[in-house]
From TrEMBL:
This is LPS export ABC transporter permease LptG. Keywords: Cell membrane, Membrane, Transmembrane, Transmembrane helix. GO terms for cellular component: ATP-binding cassette (ABC) transporter complex. The keyword Transmembrane helix applies. It is found in: Cell membrane. The chain crosses the membrane at residues 12-30, 61-82, 103-124, 299-317, 329-349, 355-376. It comes from Paraburkholderia dipogonis. It is a multi-pass membrane protein. GO terms for biological process: lipopolysaccharide transport; transmembrane transport. The gene is lptG.
Length: 382
């Protein structure tokens, strides 16, 4: 880095750290107030609420980093403009495009930090936070259905080469990734119900097996019609054979990682888990639009730091007469909040209209990037 770049970087990073922790403390306070509604239920005490909110802090960092980068850069440049420091840099030969390249260079560590938090730290602490809460409340994870969560599981082939399709109903998913109140409806290659299996509980045993306990296995066997009577495809006759076994090893493509998507929202999952879950949904011919948008947003969101830094540079060209430092910082806060709102709103609109996931995820950033470049060109001319 050149001398002026080190000077810019030091000022921006110090301000960035202060703003990041200030905003995180504000969100911590609001999240803790929201969590107080659960305090007193079961074994959920105030200490657990504080621990849960603290574990959610990395995800808050992930959400705040682009906005904090924008506000810190605006504050630094507004201060430089007020003290005529940036004017001296311009008189010394600092061109606009050169300042923009230097600013983007300063943003590279922030982009890498965003990826690190979003892919490694955040998803792990979010799942840990949910497990702390569920264990304290003595609860389990389930979907909005009263019967629990339903998952489609398609096996490539059985021993005889026939494809098997299962619809698995998990009544409860415990924080330790064990399942209970399990019902499995198994269909043959012609989509005829061939087996109904219920189990009290189950635990995953890699690779690719679930150890079920308290199993009741009901097999539906075709009964051939009497001799001389034609078979009626619309009214088949079955014979049920029920067998109870204490344990049963079930081969399945489902894993605890796939079921763990219930613990956190798609926006807080890692790209690796999102990709695996999208593969699972695709193999089972299920809709993947929501998760594809979440995957592309996770891929592109760290680059919003660059967009925010581009938006901040025009403030360096505004003299003190154009507004005090506080007003410029307030404008930066509003600009950052509008980006977050537009980014979230556009993803929901894209999901409803089934727009391509890359376009839905990239459009908000491109819009604000164009806005920043247009603003930079305007202030450079005037």
């Amino acid at each position: 880095m050149r001398i002026y770049e080190r000077y810019f970087a030091r000022q921006i990073y110090l301000t960035f750290i202060f703003i990041l922790f200030a905003f995180s403390g504000l969100f911590f306070f609001f999240d803790l107030i929201n969590e107080l509604n659960s305090v007193g239920h079961g074994n959920y005490k105030f200490q657990y609420a504080v621990l849960r909110v603290a574990l959610q802090t990395p995800s808050r960092f992930y959400e705040i980093i682009p906005v904090a980068a924008l506000i810190s850069a605006i504050y630094v440049f507004a201060q430089m403009a007020a003290n005529s420091e940036y004017t001296i840099f311009r008189v010394s030969g600092l061109a606009t495009n050169q300042a923009l390249r230097s600013l983007l260079k300063i943003g590279i560590p922030l982009v890498l930090l965003t990826y690190l938090i979003g892919e490694v730290v955040g998803p792990y602490t979010d799942q840990l936070s949910e497990r702390v809460r569920l264990e304290a409340l003595g609860s389990s994870v389930s979907s909005n259905f009263e019967s629990g969560v339903w998952v489609k599981d398609t096996l490539t082939a059985r021993a005889d080469g026939e494809q098997v399709t299962r619809f698995v109903n998990v009544g409860e998913l415990k924080p330790d990734a064990t399942i209970s109140n399990v019902r499995i409806y198994e269909f043959d290659s012609k989509f005829r119900l061939s087996n109904v299996r219920t189990a009290k509980s189950g635990k995953y045993q890699p690779p690719g097996h679930w150890q079920l306990t308290g199993v009741t296995d009901t097999q539906l066997i075709d009964v051939p019609p009497p001799p001389g009577t034609p078979a009626d495809a619309l009214n088949p006759v079955y014979r049920a054979k029920e067998v109870a076994v204490p344990e049963y090893s079930l081969r399945s493509e489902l894993t605890p990682q796939i079921l763990s998507v219930l613990l956190v929202s798609p926006d807080r999952m890692s790209m690796f888990n999102l990709f695996r879950y999208i593969q699972h949904l695709t193999e089972n011919h299920q809709d993947t639009q929501r998760y594809e948008i979440a995957l592309w947003r996770k891929l592109l969101y760290p680059f919003a730091v660059f967009v925010m830094l581009v938006l901040s540079l025009p403030f360096a060209y505004l003299h003190t007469r154009a507004g005090v430092v506080g007003m410029k910082v307030f404008g930066g806060i509003m600009l950052g909040m509008s980006f977050q709102l537009f980014n979230t709103l556009f993803s929901h609109i894209g999901t409803l209209n089934t727009w391509p996931a890359p376009l839905t995820a990239a459009t908000p950033g491109l819009v604000y990037l164009v806005l920043g470049l247009v603003g930079l060109k305007w202030v450079d001319r005037h």
